[in-house]
Specification:
The structure holds 2 protein chains of 2 kinds.
Chain A: H1 5-23, E1 29-34, E2 37-39, E3 43-51, E4 63-67, E5 73-75, E6 78-83, E7 86-92, E8 103-112, E9 116-127, H2 133-139, H3 172-196, H4 199-230, H5 245-265, H6 270-294, H7 319-355
Parallel strand pairs in A: 2-9
Antiparallel strand pairs in A: 1-3, 3-7, 4-5, 4-8, 6-7, 8-9
Helix pairs in contact in A: 1-7, 3-4, 3-6, 3-7, 4-5, 4-6, 4-7, 5-6
Chain B: H1 2-21, H2 23-42, H3 48-67, H4 69-72, H5 76-85, H6 88-117, H7 125-150, H8 156-182, H9 191-217
Helix pairs in contact in B: 1-6, 2-3, 2-6, 3-6, 3-7, 3-8, 6-7, 6-9, 7-8, 7-9, 8-9
Classes of the chains: A alpha+beta, B mainly alpha.
């Protein structure tokens, strides 16, 4: 048991990841608003569709604002609760806005004591008939946003478009990190082979790289599924014109490691195979590092972390998600090294059989 | 100072061999000329964007066929002979430097062929030739090192292509971007970043090649 604790730990962490990652609910959010564009001077009634909300169970009345910027917001004139997930909210849009833009976007903010505050950025576009910021300033009936409630209980953040797929962070992203750790493990084994000329280190490098490649493929597949759900069903990963650069980069990384296996197949002699593939493995890994920095900055992408899209950090990964995301990385990494160890023993047994 | 002397002597030997055979350079020249001729006859007019892409693709294949033979031509008894005489670092350094020179000649010839037949699309000469220089250095470091590995196998040309194309992708993408800027296809203020990245990749891969080659040599 002394030497196997980490395998048990990996399995327990992954069980925790699957359970918590799949079962915890999302924070209440706003899915859609209709109509989404109006003119100044209208009184608009918006039908608001909520997600995971409990409008009817709120003890205090639901409140709503149209937020212009940090200081200025319009309060709703009238709010009618239709069901847990549906509201009708009326606003009086003044005849002039205190901004010199023709089309101004407003953020919709809802608040009640059960769901806490929920936000939909750019919910409503208001077109001004004539631009007169001074008169808009005079007409503006400001009502500051105060006393927002906090949702009680543990939830994941609600993000528009992402919605429930945010849970894929624990699989897609975590598998990627685990793949990277396995490749690093493979490089260390290769260095150890070159240092000691011990064939076992070479088998270990082969096993770790193989499992890393499998995790890379799984990361790619989960990424493709995720992209089809959030970027639209038309997204095709083989269409290079619209392919996301990070996925393209992944493919290149996988090609590099596939070449590693082709190289291994090209040699019969175990010593020679081990030395050449160890040298290539180290060189390829170092050559891949610039890939991670270079390729994403070449083009804009929908992928988080480029083209102004948020990535890990900021408010997309809140503390609740961190409680599951970081363990998920550790869990997948431990599982990966366990798989690599099993495969290593298989290779070693195979070698012994071949030798007779 | 023995290292520099050995390197220079080995480079001189490669140069003399090439001069006697004239096999590599004439073959590559023929390859480049026929490819550009095909491009010229199938496109009525080569647009700058296509010019940029085709130029680097032609150069990529020309340089890979120029470099793949650098270790194949040395048979194993001769390698053993070098092994007893010289430092392995001198061997890889001489091959890399020789290939940098070869690739610079090849890239200038490719550019001349393009300019002659498909028209010269380059607007900013200094930036374009800087890209050519950095590209020759980067491609030859990676290709030479991979050629040293692939040279040990039977089907070295196939192995060379499989192993080196994914590895040079970051260099190639940065180069295409840099030369797109030199062709005024796009205006970009972060050119100095690209140059720094290219120089960084070149240095990194040179360092790895020098560090790892002695292990390849030990046969």
């Amino acid at each position: 048991m002394k030497n196997h604790w980490w395998k048990a730990l990996g399995v327990i962490i992954l069980l925790y990841t699957f359970t918590a990652g799949m079962l915890l609910p999302l924070k209440p959010g706003i899915v859609a608003v209709n109509p989404s564009a109006v003119r100044t001077g209208d009184t608009v009634t918006l039908s608001v569709q909520g997600y995971n909300t409990f409008f009817t169970q709120s003890k205090t009345p639901v409140r709503a604002w149209l937020k212009l910027d940090e200081q200025r917001a319009l309060a709703a004139e009238d709010i009618e609760v239709i069901s847990d997930n549906a509201l009708r909210v009326s606003f009086d849009i003044p005849a002039h806005l205190p901004v010199s833009r023709r089309v101004q976007d407003f953020t919709l903010l809802l608040d009640n004591d059960v769901d806490g505050a929920s936000v939909l950025p750019s919910a409503l576009l208001v077109t001004q008939d004539s631009i007169q910021p001074e008169r808009g300033e005079a007409l503006w009936a400001n009502s500051p946003i105060t006393d927002l409630h906090e949702k009680s209980g543990i939830t994941f953040p609600f993000r528009n478009i992402l919605a429930e797929t945010i849970r894929n962070t624990y699989f897609h992203v975590a598998l990627w990190f685990a793949m990277l750790f396995l490749f690093i493990g493979g490089v260390i084994s290769s260095v150890r082979y070159l240092a000691n000329n011990d064939l076992n280190a070479d088998y270990r490098a082969q096993a770790q790289t193989t499992v890393g490649l499998i995790f890379g493929l799984l990361g790619l597949i989960t990424g493709i599924i995720w992209a089809r759900n959030t970027w639209g069903a038309g997204y095709k990963f083989w269409n290079l014109r619209e392919v996301d650069v990070k996925q393209a980069m992944t493919m290149v990384a996988l090609f590099v490691y596939l070449a590693y296996f082709v190289l291994r197949m090209a040699f019969e002699d175990a010593e020679r195979k081990a030395r050449l593939s160890a040298v290539y493995n180290i060189f390829a890994f170092v050559a891949l590092i610039p890939l991670i920095y270079v390729v994403p900055r070449l083009t804009d992408s929908l992928h988080p972390g480029s083209g102004g899209n948020p990535a890990l950090g900021g408010e997309d990964l809140d503390n609740t998600m961190r409680m599951i995301f970081y363990p998920a990385i550790i869990g997948w990494t431990l599982l990966g090294f366990w798989m690599a160890q099993l495969y290593y023993r298989l290779i070693k047994a195979q070698m012994r059989v071949d030798e007779g | 100072m023995g290292l520099i002397k050995e390197t220079l002597a080995l480079m001189r030997k490669d140069l003399v061999l090439e001069w006697r055979g004239k096999y590599a350079l004439s073959g590559i020249l023929l390859y480049v000329f026929s490819t550009v001729f095909i491009i010229y006859t199938s496109f009525d007019e080569v647009e700058p964007k296509a010019w940029n892409t085709l130029f680097w693709v032609v150069l990529l294949f020309a340089s890979i066929s120029a470099i793949v033979k650098s270790f194949v031509q040395e048979n194993s008894p001769r390698q053993l002979y070098y092994y007893s005489l010289t430092n392995p670092i001198a061997v890889i350094l001489s091959k890399t430097l020789y290939n940098i020179g070869l690739l610079m000649v090849v890239s200038l010839l490719t550019w001349a062929c393009f300019a002659l037949m498909a028209g010269n699309a380059v607007k900013d000469n200094s930036q374009f030739f800087l890209a050519l220089f950095l590209g020759s250095v980067g491609l030859s470091i990676t290709f030479t090192f991979v050629a040293a590995i692939a040279g040990k196998a039977d089907h070295s040309a196939t192995l060379q292509a499989i192993m080196s194309f994914p590895l040079v992708l970051p260099i190639l993408l940065t180069l295409i971007r840099l030369s797109a800027n030199a062709l005024r296809l796009e205006q970009d203020s972060s050119i100095s970043d690209d140059i720094a990245i290219l120089a960084g990749i070149d240095l990194l891969s040179l360092g790895m090649a020098l560090l790892l080659f002695p292990f390849l040599w030990r046969e």
